[in-house]
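Sequence in, structure out.
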Amino acid sequence: LFAYSTLIFLVLKEFVPLRFKSRILHLAEILCLMLGCNAIVYPEEVTGTVGSLLMLLPILFLFHKSEWYMKVTTAFIVYPAMMALAFLFQDMGQQIWENVFHQQMSDAGENALYVFTRFLKVPAWYLIYRCVKVWVPQAVRMLTRRMWFVLSVISLSSFIGIIITIYQCSAKESYLAWPSCIATLVTSMGCCYLCTYMAKIVRSDMERETMQYQKSYYREIESSQQTVR
């Protein structure tokens, strides 16, 4: 749980900077993520999904400094990935227990299966963190307010979709929700990459304006030199 929560903490930090420099407060945020964002997500229920959201938003507003819309957009991007992975690995363990072992496992075997499926979130989030670290940090500093709202609208679809999908899928056919969970992950990662793409557009516009300014400046110098001659 600590490793998983630490990776979530690192991902959030790449989107919005930390408010405090104290390592104790950083540890406090990780502990809050452990308590609030490690819910077990079952089909046909919203307790885990809504509970995690109600903990994630206060954590972002308390421990991170940035504009409110940046924090909300970060939640819209990160939260669906959290819920999709939590549901996927939880349901995978459930399907293995029911269909492979036919609900006949020793207590030690059930505990081992539970720990294994929960542990799978660590390498998954490590891969997400590596991608976010490459795509996001430099990009978010260049995004305009309007671009943040565009990201928010795009990620809102997966944000709402994952909650509805988990709530409406039946426990007997919960595996049918797996494609939606994978699509949610792709959407969240696509939003991360979109940050880089938008930043390139902003950078190109800035370079174009700089080039035009330089050309105008050189033309003025040349005109002044001709006047002097």
